[in-house]
Amino acid sequence: MNVTIWNEYYEELVYLSVSVHYPDGIHTVLAEALQEDDSAGLEVRIALQQDPEHGLPQSVLDDTDVLLWWSHLKDDEVDDEIVERVARRVEEGMGLLILHSAIGSKVARRVLGTTCRGTGWRHGDAELMWAVAPSHPITHGLPHPIAVPEGEMYGEPLDIPVPDELVYLTSYAGGEVLRSVATWRRGAGRVVFIAPGHEESPVYRQPEIRRLLRNATRWAADLPVPGAPVPPPRREGEWPMHWWKGGVTA
User: Fold this and answer.
1) Eight-state DSSP code of residue 214
2) Helical H runs in 43-121?
3) Whole-prediction pTM value?
4) What distances in angstroms separate CA 224 from CA 77, 111, 182, one per listed residue?
5) What value, to the nearest 5°, has the Cα angle with vertex 86 and ends 67 and 30?
6) CB-based contacts of 22-29 (< 8 A; 24+ apart in sequence)
7) Is residue 179 scored above 90 in pLDDT?
8) What pLDDT was estimated at residue 243?
């Protein structure tokens, strides 16, 4: 599995409140989290916004199974051609993880087709992430709920398309909620939004979030999550199992 981690790599260089948690960049911590997967064959590449072609020439994207995208303050400076390049590769089958504030990015808006705007934000909130699809492979091996001691509240309504699968719903200390892990199919590609990841908190150093990232990366690559049950294939005309606890009916 070939993974590319894209980071605008700006705030870590100019804000002490960010660099104290990510002195070598958010991308390095994300890479470390993925490399904790001891499965054979994982290759991680780093692409930064200041690189030529933002680190994403066509040859790199063609060799990428899953792209992780982290952006915030510099997103408007991302070249539109690169955005289109990413969107085409998703349609062709590349997985995409949209991380935290990247939900408002050009890439997210292009791939999801909505404004991706939320209703307010607040730093420093404690979060509880509730698995509302507890049998989904992304949740495998994770506690319920996942507690994030200090993150960032993004409020609903969030202008994203209705998810194909809503995996986690987060509640915040202030009473707000957020669809915090959601998935979509776009063409042959799988897309995952993962909300926790505030740059002024060490969220990506938290073991549960690191496992969440690994699970989501494997799912986006259409690979099994080690140890997670594999649902049986559903035949044409059958109801999903959860519709009736007595079993699948025709």
Assistant:
1) H
2) 58-62, 80-92, 106-112
3) 0.91
4) 36, 24, 18
5) 20
6) 22/199, 22/204, 26/70, 26/197, 26/199, 26/204, 27/70, 29/204, 29/205
7) yes
8) 37
